[in-house]
From TrEMBL:
The lineage of its organism: Bacteria, Pseudomonadati, Pseudomonadota, Gammaproteobacteria, Lysobacterales. The keyword Hydrolase does not apply. Gene3D superfamilies: 3.30.70.260, ACT-like. Chain A, domain 2. Catalyzes the conversion of 2 pyruvate molecules into acetolactate in the first common step of the biosynthetic pathway of the branched-amino acids such as leucine, isoleucine, and valine. Pathway: Amino-acid biosynthesis; L-valine biosynthesis; L-valine from pyruvate: step 1/4; Amino-acid biosynthesis; L-isoleucine biosynthesis; L-isoleucine from 2-oxobutanoate: step 1/4. This is Acetolactate synthase small subunit. It catalyses: 2 pyruvate + H(+) = (2S)-2-acetolactate + CO2. Dimer of large and small chains. Keywords: Amino-acid biosynthesis, Branched-chain amino acid biosynthesis, Transferase. Its EC number is 2.2.1.6.
Amino acid sequence: MRHLVSLLLQNEAGALARVAGLFASRGYNIESLTVAATHDMDASRLTLVVFGDDAVIEQIVKQSAKLVDVIEVSQLSGDGYVERELLVAHVETRDVPAIDTCLGRFGARLLQRTGDRSVVEYTGRSEDIDAFLDTLRQAGRITDHARSGIAAIEWPLVAA
């Protein structure tokens, strides 16, 4: 089962390595890992996507909370969060209007175009990105693409 785990970490050297090491030492592959600064300059948000059963993930969450660099740990589930991922893709086609139709259908953006080559950008949930890629493949040949990994935050906000 897919699990999203969000951690607030102190901005200190080695913090990310310690968290990733905890997951790796338990034999769990990290499907996606995204980390960036937050509104608080002393903290970063790390979002992990891992697969495993509920009991094991619960143990990993508890052990993560014990790490010295971890400020807060949340397991994101149900309707209690918003997630987004960024895709940037190179696509080639002789049918440029088909690419434009695909972009319009999904609300994606054209970043650059030269002749039959385009660079496009799409932001959405992981399953939306998968659907966009499937549709894009029907419109042209994807020669390369990069995905950012998931960024997620709890929603609705709970009063502090």
